[in-house]
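Lay summary. Proteins are chains of building blocks that fold into shapes, and those shapes determine what they do. In this project we predict the shape from the chain. Here is one chain we studied, written as its sequence of building blocks.
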Amino acid sequence: MKTSLSSYYKEKIQDHQHTEMSEPEFIAAMEDSMEPLRQFFSYYKCAIMEIETKFRVLNEQFSLDGESNPIEFIQSRVKSYGSIYRKVESKGLPLTLDAIEEEIHDIAGIRVVCSFIQDIYRLADCFLSQDDIFLIERKDYISSPKPNGYRSLHLIVAVPIFLENEKRMVKAEVQLRTIAMDFWASLEHKLRYKKDLPAEKLELLANGLKECADESARWDDRMQGIKNMLEED
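And here is the predicted shape, written in a compact code that computers can read:
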């Protein structure tokens, strides 16, 4: 897949621009042009299915052991074409599938929302202990929050997917966070794009969001403390 995406589609257009094509031929040509991209993105969809299954199995295991389910819900997504393009531009990468696969690690994204902070670390440890999960990078924004107050545990991993004639290692980003962390991050994401505000109001907004992040972190700590007290009895 070393062909440049831009040159690939340019060649496809040039192949047919001077040829009269019927509708079925045109549709077939377009589908042929899209095939490398469809295949490329299917790998990431498969990786998401593999990782989601692993977390759902862990959640079920904890339930069978007489414990409450640590996972509230799981969300996943494959990065959009536009998001990938903007990341390629910001990193100064060549517009090739090889470069995208090698340098962009969060094309597949899985968010695991947990009840308590300790659930996050326990699930992460269980997940990473599996012999077919390979940790590439770990960023703990819970113990060391971002300046704006963002908290979450990020894991960049590689997971094998088994296709008809091959096994491929595919990278994905896993984010683990509590309900409070997820609620704050969702609202912050919406407010962050209010760019038409004056500087003073933007500063007030940033300060207010940081205060909310700190308050939600205190709630997480208090709820974890209550859970610990209950488990001691």
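What the prediction tells us: The radius of gyration is 22 Å.
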